Amino acid sequence: MSELLSLILGTFMFFTMLGFFVLIYIALCLGRMRMFQKAGVAGWKAWIPLYRDYVLCQITMGKGWYFVLGLIPPLYPVMQVLYAIEICLSYKMEILFGVLYFFLPWLAELIIGFGKSEYQGSQDLDQQIRNLFGGTGTAAGNGQNTGASQGGRSQKGADPESNVVHTEEAREADPPEDGAAQS
User: Fold this and answer.
1) Which residue ranges make up each domain of the chain?
2) pTM surpassing 0.70?
3) Beta strand pairing status for 153-154 and 158-159?
């Protein structure tokens, strides 16, 4: 009788824990799906286990292959801290929010995904260091602001040399005025 009772309790605990982990995974996927949609990435990519980490690294750090470093056991804690910081920077959240992301990523991703945060884009490593340590956002210490930064975040299609942002829509809307291009 006691063996049957322990078998029933063990089975119940197993399925209870399994259900709990499935609910956490669903919460993670839903939050990350909304984060991806804010970044202009298809939301279905949040449901594929390793690919979701690749895409997260791609949209926050600019290079998707960084997720491989998180698979190396000694580097895992370091990469988790880096992920938390990068996500805070990419979605314009306070750095202290990174502490929540580090300890409860499923809750933090739900807050980012369904909250009012907006995707700001990824940025290069030098700009990240300047932003984290209260830098001015200047380019390589020469005292000039880069055209590629807006609030410390890089813009897609920005030209850092001329402080002009180029987009395909602007090029199509403003055809060349001289007749040289038309023959």
Assistant:
1) 2-114, 125-173
2) no
3) unpaired
